[in-house]
């Protein structure tokens, strides 16, 4: 993502405040772009597939952290966990997250129906509840309110207007999810802020999604609603599964095997890009596979989200 002090600029999000990591250059978790660089990387290493099946989007988002940034975040998270003895990592811990959905549109363009919004929330509850596959994370989502803003500039260029739109529309506190939909172009599917960035600028907290990525949308291969699942994973404290490549500590989650680079499409027969044990987690929501390929969080990811919640959002 972008911004100094969590305000939208280009490049990085400076990290935060006293109670959160204080690194000076922690990027936004997930601007799921399909930036040209990310797309080139993914295309160069993707499993063979029919020429006409490759989607124009290059990657789910565009921001990754450096190894040094991850190390600083993890050190401070560990310190805070030790002091607060945050939420126990058990499947009995559950949290229903209130959602404020902000529909940016230009007349009829992008003016999502209530039915589509409700379907997206159903996708979130199924994916985070382990009803598709994988672990039940203990998180669920309930719609609190929908706002609709008819503004062609905000709708067509939300990055440029991010500060203005979020300052005006954001509702709730650290535990409320603000989700914005707009037209992000053809190189970006969404972006999110990390939980440890909240204290530095609460109004900027939240997730921005390409309107075409919601269920039944126009983003070919990415229109089953899992971009929201992916981006909210960042909002809850998860890194990409390919964070740090084959180098320790990877994405800091023990049960997601190391992965050298983002997945692309849905590699037939799986993929194994690192010498450590385990095939690449190409079916994980925090990779860059197509929506039809994604179906799971791991128990380790669920545990991490609950711990992070207890420190930064609880």
Describe it:
This protein is α/β, with parallel strands linked by helices and 314 residues long. Helix content is 26%, strand content 11%. It contains seven helices and five strands. Strands 2-1-3-5-4 form a five-stranded mixed sheet. Helix 3 (114-128) links the parallel strand 1 (95-105) and strand 2 (139-150). Helix 2 (67-84) crosses helix 7. The longest helix is centred in the first third of the chain and has 18 residues, at 67-84. The relative contact order is 0.19.
Distance between the first and last residues' Cα: 24 Å
Helix content range: 25-40%
User: What pattern of helices and strands is seen along the backbone?
Assistant: HHEHEHHEEEHH
Structure class: alpha/beta
Q: Strand tally, please?
A: 5
**Mean pLDDT figure:** 82
Strands of the widest sheet, in order across it, are 2-1-3-5-4
Radius of gyration: 18 Å
Profile the largest sheet. Answer: 5 strands, mixed
**pLDDT below 50 for ≥5 consecutive residues: which ranges?**
1-29, 34-59
**Number of separate helices:** 7
Shape verdict: globular
Task: Note the beta-strand portion.
Answer: 5-15%
Task: Break the fold down into its secondary structure elements and pairings.
Layout: H1 36-45, H2 67-84, E1 95-105, H3 114-128, E2 139-150, H4 152-156, H5 162-169, E3 177-182, E4 190-192, E5 207-210, H6 226-235, H7 299-313
Helix pairs in contact: 2-7
Q: What is shown here, in short?
A:
The chain is of the alpha/beta class and 314 residues long.
Keywords:
about 325 residues, alpha/beta, 5-stranded mixed sheet, 7 helices, disordered N terminus
